[in-house]
Amino acid sequence: MDMRGTTNGLIRACVAAMCLASTACAPGDAPEAPGGGGSYDDLTALFAEWREFEAPDFVDGVPDYSADAMAAQYAELPAWRARLEALNPEEWPAARQIDWHLVRAEMNGLDFDHRVRQPWARNPAFYVTIFAAESDVPAHEGPVIHGWIDLWTYDYPLSENDAAELASRIGSIPALLEQARVNLTGNAHDLWVAGLRSFRAQASDLDALAGRVGGASRALDDAIAAAGAATDGFHDWIGELADSKTGTSGVGKDNYTWYMHNVHLVPYSWEQQVTLMRRELARSHSSLRLEEHRNRNLPELERIATAEEYDRRLNAAVDDYMRFIEDDEIQTVEDWMDPAIRAKNGSFSPVAPGEIRNFFSEVTYRDPVVMRAHMHHWIELATMAEAPHASPVRSVPLLYNIWDARSEGLATGMEEMMMHAGLLDGKPRSRELVWIMLAQRAARALSGLYLHGNVFDMEEAVAHASTWTPRGWLPDADLVRGEQHLYLQQPGYGTSYITGKIQIEELMAEWAIQEGDAFTVQRFFDAFFGAGAIPVVLTRWEMTGAVDAVLIRD
Q1: Is the pLDDT confidence value at 33 over 50?
Q2: CA pair distance 225, 174, nearest whole angstrom
Q3: Is pLDDT of 300 > 50?
Q4: Which of 78, 172, 374, 385 has the fewest C-beta atoms lying within 10 Å of its C-beta?
């Protein structure tokens, strides 16, 4: 099994190393708070122990999310928070205080899960175990069950050891889904119904895996078959109970605001985010119309038509983008960056004339370089593997998607910022694509906000996102439901693309004023990337010394 460069490998390696350095890495023992202040070494030891505690106990390979187990975990949380508070980090250097706040945010995340989100009791999709493809962000998007299986981390054909490992892990799925039938007592209608789609996807992934590895290991073949049958049965069970689930699924406006301020460290309330999303939706649509007016006498962009053209243009787009960020002094370029982004070029997918592909493919098939800016994701992931942050806390992905506004906001921000910096000079029609993408993200973000505010139900959210996406490029209601399901499971994710972008723009403005004549775009981005994949308010603290109000402790 090849774990090089994978998020999960980084997590396990770093946490294991810290546990070895710690004298108390027993997740079942609630720690005692020290009598006085502590050191940064105490924080890193606590972090290692905390990560062990945050995971549930495993019984015969199955994570225990039963009501009793979760109640016991929550009962121990105050002692962990007291230990963290007792470290008294106020006199530490800012960079080390930032790490303290990251650990605090994770503890707040577990608190919120127990008080509000309760994915083990409300969200059937929480029990999905199989993940066939790597995400373009530091960890899985949305809540993920401990014991997840990332099929993409294995080398194929499987070695004998890997086949045995997969047989054991996949073999636990039937027991997990039996436990889930007891644990799932919630009444959230939209979350419940959306779980049907998630388990159809798991069944498909298991079928594909069976076709890929079938015959190599009898034990693995049997495990996949049993997991597939259990998945189908669980899907049907969800469907049988769907009509009985009548409650709302959103966390509510006040809970949403608390979560943003205390877990994701995003300094905007639910109401403020509605205002920001509406503004960006209007700005993107009006900017698009003005671009279209300016370009009205120019030919439309033609879609890539053949596999040969696809490969040629995607590789040329990577060449152009990497040359631009290096020659135009956007950031310092390292050797591993080009291969990281080029490896995700994908392959040509034919469609009938007039047929709409996946939304972002409609962009890529018209001008691939536009989405290369968003694909900065893969440069960041490669950097985490090749040059991880020196901090043990920042060198692994944060829990609860705390990185979302930083990661998705950066990728979205790069699209427009690189356009303004000159990436699309001489490509007026390609500029339209940037505004189309921003409009789509603002539309779906508003839908997600209204879902959490219990203003919309799922179908209203889907209709809103589709209606406000330009050119009819979001006709696939299942695709939109998938996005909205993610945002419903993970508060803040739908808006993170834009709230993060806005914060990065604000930080650039503030830092430029501080730096005066010394400001350059490359110095800004090198400093920004150097802080790691952490909330932007913490990067701002490290770069400017300004401490945001959301970081002030009561």
Answers
A1: no
A2: 10
A3: yes
A4: 78
